[in-house]
Amino acid sequence: MKIIVHRGTHQIGGCSTEIATKTSRIVIDFGSELDGNQSLDVDSVTKGISDCKAVLFTHYHGDHIGLLESINSDIPLFIGELSLDILKLQNARQKIYAEEVIDRIKPYITGKEMIFGDITVTPYMVDHSAFDSHMFLIEAEGKKILHTGDFRAHGFRGKGLLPTLKKYVGEVDVIICEGTTIGRGTIKSLAESELLCKAKTIFDENKYVFIVCASTNVDRIAAFCSAVPRGKYCICDGYQRSILDVVREKSGKYSSLYAFPKILTYSSRLDEKMKNRGFCMFIRPGNYLSDKLLEQYKDMAPLVVYSMWHGYLEQNDSLAKKLSEYRIEELHTSGHADMGIIENVIKAVKPKVVVPIHTNNPERFSFSAHVKVLEDEEEMQI
Fold first, then answer.
1. Is the pLDDT of residue 253 over 90?
2. Cα→Cα distances 279→300, 338, 381, Å
3. ∠ Cα 235 210 289 (to 5°)
4. Count of H helices and E strands in the chain?
5. Residue 87 vs residues 112, 221, 242, 368: alpha-carbon distances, Å
6. What whole-number percentage of the chain has pLDDT above 70?
7. What is the pLDDT of residue 36?
8. Where do the domains of the chain lie, and which CATH numbers do they carry?
9. Is the CB of residue 199 less than 8 Å from the CB of residue 305?
10. Which pLDDT score is estimated for 185?
């Protein structure tokens, strides 16, 4: 069996990994780079006669799925069941991908084996800022590979990470492990539960709060919804509500956190009540409704809670300029595991080889004695 990381050995985002036997090939993720690069050519995957059993996506973020349109049209595509629902809603609004390409994607089910020739793949759900993210256990030719995808342990579902590895994965020959935060120091990430507590204080102290966060960061939205005090409105627009509705339908029965009982869809009929009682509202600056309400409350000293990676503000001058006109408080935590959790994951599966991906600092995986730092397109036999 061989592993080829087509891209992602020395960068964050834009990753794509191939795993192949003598008779079968699969590819995991096919993302666009964070700088917007929209190309990645792989023989018999994006060009030439197809020789690939499937492309599987760990989750719906663009740096993992963004180049799906370039994949040959006869190659099957797979993503998590709820991820596919969210992706379809996102695409219907933003027109990111051609509709016929989205229609090709089939859902996989957590914990259910998929067979591609002589390769068996089992997806397991992981905690990440994209809801319904997965890692993959790949088995073939008597070998086991764990591809972690993007993961963390400080979200609401993070406590299941190590038990899942111990119960369902066990020891592996190779772990292909993301390392986004490697090189950022040893500071422990703020837990989503801690963020929720901080949000409660902020919401109690400010009558009018606008929240800027990713519409598909479901755990963050759940935290903020839970933090809205009794008597104050929790508001979103129709698009945001459509995403929360599909999450509630499939996950609300397992946790009240994802039932979103407090949230209301904005209507002008709520204007007077929102003004009198106060509110927390999820917005997307640049959207007509969001900009209208920001302007409407500008003279009432609203607080803008910015809950995304700070780097987006540095990259987006218009967003930074717009938000600079308001009081801003940044309240965010990473969607990725810190170094301590990565170490624990590696210890849990006891790999013979650790292959770092999705990191600018693969050499800093030196806390494991079995690290193999690959170059993009380098072939590794196991």
1. no
2. 13, 34, 57
3. 65
4. 12, 19
5. 21, 17, 12, 36
6. 99
7. 67
8. 2-184+335-381 (3.60.15.10), 192-330 (3.40.50.10710)
9. yes
10. 65
Q: For residue 40, is it left (φ>0), alpha (ψ between -120 and 50) or beta?
A: beta
Q: Is 89 helix (H, G, I), strand (E, B) or coil?
A: helix
> What values do phi and psi take at 106, rounded to 5?
-110, 150
Which pair of structure tokens corresponds to residue 75? 């190659």
pLDDT of residue 186: 64
The yes-or-no verdict on residue 82 having pLDDT over 90 is yes
The C-alpha R_g of the chain, in whole angstroms, comes to: 21
Question: Which of 231, 11, 223 lies closest to 131, judged by CA?
Answer: 223
| pLDDT, tens digit, 9 for 90 and up, residues 288-345 | 999 999 999 999 999 999 999 888 888 888 899 989 999 999 999 999 999 999 999 9
State the DSSP string of 154-202.
SSTTGGGHHHHIIIII-S-SEEEEE-TTTTS-SPPPPPHHHHHHHHHHH
Residue 179 contacts residue 362 (beta carbons within 8 Å) = yes
What value does the mean pLDDT take over residues 14-30? 97
Residue with tokens 């929360």: 244
Distance CA 63, CA 31 (A): 4
Q: How many CB atoms lie within 10 A of CB 343?
A: 14
Contact predicate 107/122, CB 8 Å = no
